[in-house]
TrEMBL record:
<feature type="domain" description="Mur ligase N-terminal catalytic">
    <location>
        <begin position="24"/>
        <end position="88"/>
    </location>
</feature>
<keyword id="KW-0436">Ligase</keyword>
<dbReference type="InterPro" id="IPR035911">
    <property type="entry name" value="MurE/MurF_N"/>
</dbReference>
<dbReference type="Pfam" id="PF01225">
    <property type="entry name" value="Mur_ligase"/>
</dbReference>
<dbReference type="GO" id="GO:0008360">
    <property type="term" value="P:regulation of cell shape"/>
</dbReference>
<feature type="region of interest" description="Disordered">
    <location>
        <begin position="1"/>
        <end position="21"/>
    </location>
</feature>
<dbReference type="Pfam" id="PF02875">
    <property type="entry name" value="Mur_ligase_C"/>
</dbReference>
<comment type="function">
    <text>Involved in cell wall formation. Catalyzes the final step in the synthesis of UDP-N-acetylmuramoyl-pentapeptide, the precursor of murein.</text>
</comment>
<dbReference type="GO" id="GO:0005524">
    <property type="term" value="F:ATP binding"/>
</dbReference>
<feature type="domain" description="Mur ligase central">
    <location>
        <begin position="106"/>
        <end position="292"/>
    </location>
</feature>
<dbReference type="InterPro" id="IPR036565">
    <property type="entry name" value="Mur-like_cat_sf"/>
</dbReference>
<dbReference type="InterPro" id="IPR013221">
    <property type="entry name" value="Mur_ligase_cen"/>
</dbReference>
<keyword id="KW-0547">Nucleotide-binding</keyword>
<keyword id="KW-0961">Cell wall biogenesis/degradation</keyword>
<dbReference type="GO" id="GO:0071555">
    <property type="term" value="P:cell wall organization"/>
</dbReference>
<dbReference type="InterPro" id="IPR005863">
    <property type="entry name" value="UDP-N-AcMur_synth"/>
</dbReference>
<keyword id="KW-0131">Cell cycle</keyword>
Amino acid sequence: MSLWTPNDAAAATGGRAQGDWSATGVSIDTRTIRPGDLFVALKDVRDGHDFVAQALDKGASAALVSRVPDDVASDAPLLVVPDVLAALESLGRAGRARMSGKVIAITGSVGKTSTKDMARVALTGQGRIHAAEASYNNHWGVPLTLARMPRDTDFAIVEIGMNHPGEIAPLSRIARPHVAMITTVAAAHLEAFGAIEGIAREKGSIFEGLEPVGHAIIPEDLPVTQILRDCADGSGALVMGFGRDGAARLVQAKAQDGAIMCRARIGGETVDFTLQTTGTHFAMNAVGVLAALAAAGANVKDAGKRLGDWMPPAGRGAVEVLAGIRLIDDAYNANPTSLSAGLATLAALQGGRRVAILGDMLELGADEIAMHRAMADDPAMAQVDLVHSAGPRMRHLHDALPSARRGLWAETAGELAARLDELVAPGDIVLVKGSKSSKISTVVDALRKSAQMPAFQTKE
């Protein structure tokens, strides 16, 4: 089915279309481009114009460019615009304007991508669903998601992220959501904001893009909940809080055989659901998802049944069994709130020695040393048997731990991974967590590689 014709795309962007083409998708990456895609030549680390010829050779229907590259024929199928990123934003606005379904936008310091995926799975069977791929949540990811959206979409799920002040509101205004959900507010990107209150106001700016009489789904019982509520009220939104309290609340969460059996009350309706994970923070976000879907007009009981099909994505807390150990791979991101949740997940698992392998938490600002040290007093830490760590910031946690719990410390994750035989043993339950830039995923890679080796599998 055609997504963009030359006339549609030119009208949306104000550009000049040449050639007779029809785009069935939109791509920014020649490595994953599919025949029929409109290739968008963005400038990032590399200039996308250098890859236009390759994109066309791979079957792209046309390319969105600001100039005709030297290695591309002058009569090639193109959409020529003054600025490629601005044109992509215009395509996103046009894609949003022509759909008549409901748009749900999700942001938060922790759990945006997993919550977006939860919502997508929960909506299965309730119409045509369009959701952001991977973590496409920035200045090009949001318009790209909307530009890819079929016009007959019933529910669209957009993820919105930020690194600096002033990023969320413009993206929300492009998406124009009917429902906006904030998963939580935590000490992430503090270097750019100075205090968690600034982060809360930035997250709350997602409500500035809400459609008239839109719905705001906010976490209850945070120190900054009132800031979020004020932001929602300022945008004229209908507010529903979720959490242990609120109009949407988690009534019961019982761990059983690696899953959580949950009961929630969503606006007065009881919904039972099961999650294939042991992380109670996922259960809390699932309640927020059900509240958001109810606000968007979905059948909330059917959505609850579908939640059992959702699994945490790789690197975001999924539990997998390697030879002799259970691994919680949560190596994609970290801040004190998400690390506390990861430790709680580890503490809840039964049957073996609990081992945490931790990398530095980054972008925490001036108090980063104290924040790392304070994790030694996290309530779940009492249930952890051994903590290995890597990085100069994690050295402060290492030093704060009691000697019985203090494992290895190394300057880098690579050095820690090289001592794998000293980190874990068969029967262990292992959490690996840290900011992506800490490269603690190196330990995950080493664990997976070693799991294929007989010496690891038979180790006593």
